User: Fold this.
Amino acid sequence: MAEQRVRWGILSTGAMAATFTADLVDLPDAEVVAVASRTKASAKEFAERFGIPRAYGDWESLARDEDVDVVYVATPHAAHRAAAGLCLAAGRNVLCEKPFTLNAREAGELVALARERGSFLMEAMWMYCNPLVRRMRALVEDGAIGEVRSVQADFGLAGPFPPAHRLRDPAQGGGALLDLGVYPVSFAQLLLGEPSDVTARAVLSDEGVDLQTGALLSYESGALASVHCSIIGGTPNSASVTGSRGRIDVPDGFFSPDRFVLHREGAAPEEFLADPADGPRASLRHEAREVMRALRAGESGSPLVPLDGTLAVMRTLDAIRDRVGVRYPGEEPGEVAAGRQVTPA
Assistant:
């Protein structure tokens, strides 16, 4: 029996919105019925490109559209609080791109609003929905490498990006940490949870955003996670998890891997491969399927990307920014530090 179609609205017409929509239109149980942008022309062009019946030149019209089951928010992350909040307040379900918001306070406001309205809300942390990442996590939880001692993950782009680029713009939440560092932090917390202590160092731009950041996350168990992100140097984008009886290596593209290698103590390495049917960005389709599964089941969140986990990641990102001295316009002095739940350095 065919699954009931889920009707999607797209809020944004940027590159990420286009990539996700291209995957949505290929799913037989998904229907993209509306798109919104700040300008009618941009929304209309996007709608014509993907065969979407309704194009809105404002966010409010999409939020009020009763034919939309769930809105995918893909604006720059500085606008996530406003865009997702508008949709939730109007009774829409929401899938919101990562980083979820600029800070933990904004994230908490969205989660509280969703719970108050009984709406579905999920961060678009597509890595968590990837079958190979899920397999790796299951192996770790089953004790394949023993007790986790350390996690390492990095994500860096070579750049250079000019000062006017959004990655260098404080008003758009620029910097390496929120755009790229959210992946290594989320990877570490997928396996170890929220850290008890955070230390960090960064190289800041003249505009006051982080060009390169390294952080050490410490845990009560004695485990450590080393995470790094950069917009001034291309890194391997690799990850590893070391345990008391082995190690797992994700050689490249850990956020959407095509393989990982399990090294068990006293055994030959085992290679785990992605399904050949999955393309390079298959995680987006898996993410969309998880949203639709949860909506059909009447769930207010996803067990794969739980809201409490999203809030924990945002607290860690706040703690890192507190350590390196990055604050965005509109944030009060001390607000980022006040939102964290980790021991002061």
Summary: The longest strand covers residues 148-156. The chain has ten helices and 14 strands.
